[in-house]
């Protein structure tokens, strides 16, 4: 069975009284990533660092909001602790 290159997957769904069940009848080839072997570790580290920064920023924002809810100017009182804990969470995601 031949499909155009843009077709990634063809699924067949069978409906019955007790529910539907699906099965994949064709799965196309995924494109291979074009990248030199020497740059793969660097790209992996850059992606991991970006994810760690995202986690750290998200954690800081939630702690900031929580500190602000708890007391007046709470974000200023808890700033150092919030930054430290968020940074620590980000470093856990970085996994050196």
Stretches with pLDDT under 50, minimum 5 residues: none
User: Share of helix among residues?
Assistant: 40-55%
Please, how many helices? 3
Write out the strand line-up for the largest beta sheet, numbering strands in chain order: 1-2
H/E series, N to C? Answer: EEHHH
Radius of gyration computed on alpha carbons = 24 Å
Mean pLDDT: 86
- How does the major sheet shape up? 2 strands, antiparallel
Could you tell me how far the N terminus lies from the C terminus, measured between alpha carbons in angstroms? 47 Å
Q: β content, as a range? A: 15-25%
Q: Count all strands and give the number.
A: 2
Description:
This protein has 96 residues and is an alpha+beta fold. It has a domain at 39-94. 53% of the residues lie in helices and 18% in strands. It is built from three helices and two strands. Strands 1-2 form a two-stranded antiparallel ribbon. The longest helix has 31 residues, at 40-70. The chain starts with 8 loop residues before the first strand and ends with a helix. 4% of the residues are buried. The mean pLDDT is 86.
Q: How do you describe this structure in short?
A:
The protein has 96 residues and is α+β, with helices and mostly antiparallel strands. The protein has 3 helices and 2 strands, in the order ββααα.
Question: What are the salient characteristics of this protein?
Answer:
2 strands; alpha+beta; 18% strand; 96 residues; single chain
């Amino acid at each position: 069975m031949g499909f155009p290159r843009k077709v990634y997957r063809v699924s067949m769904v069978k409906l019955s009284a007790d529910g539907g069940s699906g099965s994949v009848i064709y799965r196309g080839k995924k494109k291979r990533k074009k990248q030199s072997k020497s740059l793969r570790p660097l790209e992996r580290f850059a992606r991991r660092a970006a994810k760690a920064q995202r986690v750290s920023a998200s954690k800081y924002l939630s702690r900031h909001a929580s500190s602000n809810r708890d007391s007046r100017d709470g974000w200023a009182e808890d700033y150092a602790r919030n930054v430290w804990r968020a940074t620590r969470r980000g470093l856990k995601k970085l996994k050196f």
